[in-house]
Design goal:
single chain; about 270 residues; Aminopeptidase; about 40% helix; about 15% strand; globular
Length: about 270
């Protein structure tokens, strides 16, 4: 049934996009004529306010008791590295006029469901989860970006939200879940495009030889998000060389600038 809903939603989007648009009416609308005729200071229809800037939710991976991967520096773990990167990325995005919210701003534990719910409740436009990689033999290096695989949408998302309150005000719970599934399916192409931009920008600052590509997996932190969502592995923090580089301020600045350019479509 879930696949049917996604196919139906995709068909609706294709039909809407391919429909021939009506010829625009060159005559001003009644509202426009009334507004022009109204004298200055009269109580005419209010002009629409400026559109809010897109909201990007940045999720620093791990936190609290979930320390994540150990880095090359003794006592330093992934949770601290991702938080430092998230804070710098947020600063660079805000400087570009985007709105930004972090799922955590300090060392605290958050479940995967809480992270996705944080973005959904704020009706975010993008969800970017930052992580750092590690390998058993500490020999691997490189960056990669994950998006959900189409098969991941077959996983019953309701199981992830069983304890949540009403996801949408004024909408029945079951209908709200259906709308979530449709939004999640329609967000996959945009998430894949964002992932490609991230890899392209990262290659410019980290080198083509370290590009591990765009990958598809069923990461639970992405499963709950109803907007385009990606998980970025910035590199391997336990690699003898790359691990040390990722802790340098210059490298962090370069990577965050690359991510900001990809998110802002520069």
């Amino acid at each position: 049934m879930r696949k049917g809903l996604l196919i139906a939603a995709s068909c609706v989007a294709v039909v809407a996009a391919s429909a021939t648009p009506a010829e625009p009416d060159s005559r001003p609308s009644r509202r426009a004529r009334t507004a022009r005729a109204a004298p200055s200071g009269s109580s005419g229809p209010a002009a629409p306010g400026p559109k809010a800037a897109p909201l990007v939710v940045i999720d620093p991976g791990h936190g609290g008791t979930n320390a994540g991967a150990p880095s090359i520096r003794e006592g330093l773990y992934e949770k601290s590295v991702t938080l430092a990167y998230a804070q710098e990325l947020a600063t660079r995005l805000r400087a570009r006029g985007l709105r930004v919210a972090l799922t955590r701003r300090d060392d605290r534990y958050l479940s995967l469901r809480q992270r996705a719910r944080f973005a959904n409740e704020r009706r975010a436009d993008l969800f970017v989860s930052l992580h750092a990689n590690a390998s058993f033999d500490r020999s691997r290096r490189g960056f990669e970006t994950f998006v959900l695989s189409p098969d991941a949408l077959d996983i019953d998302g309701r199981a992830l939200r069983v304890d949540d309150g009403a996801p949408r005000l004024g909408v029945e719970r079951d209908i709200s879940f259906v709308l979530d599934d449709i939004e999640r399916g329609l967000s996959l192409p945009r998430a894949a495009m964002l992932a490609q931009r991230i890899q392209r920008q990262m290659r410019r600052v980290r080198g083509r030889q370290d590009d591990r590509g765009v990958r598809q997996e069923s990461h639970h932190v992405l499963l709950g998000a109803t907007m385009p969502a990606v998980l970025v592995e910035i590199g391997f923090i336990d690699h003898p060389i790359e691990g040390g580089e990722l802790l340098e301020a210059k490298v962090r600045a370069d990577i965050c600038e690359a991510l900001a350019k990809a998110i802002a479509r520069e």
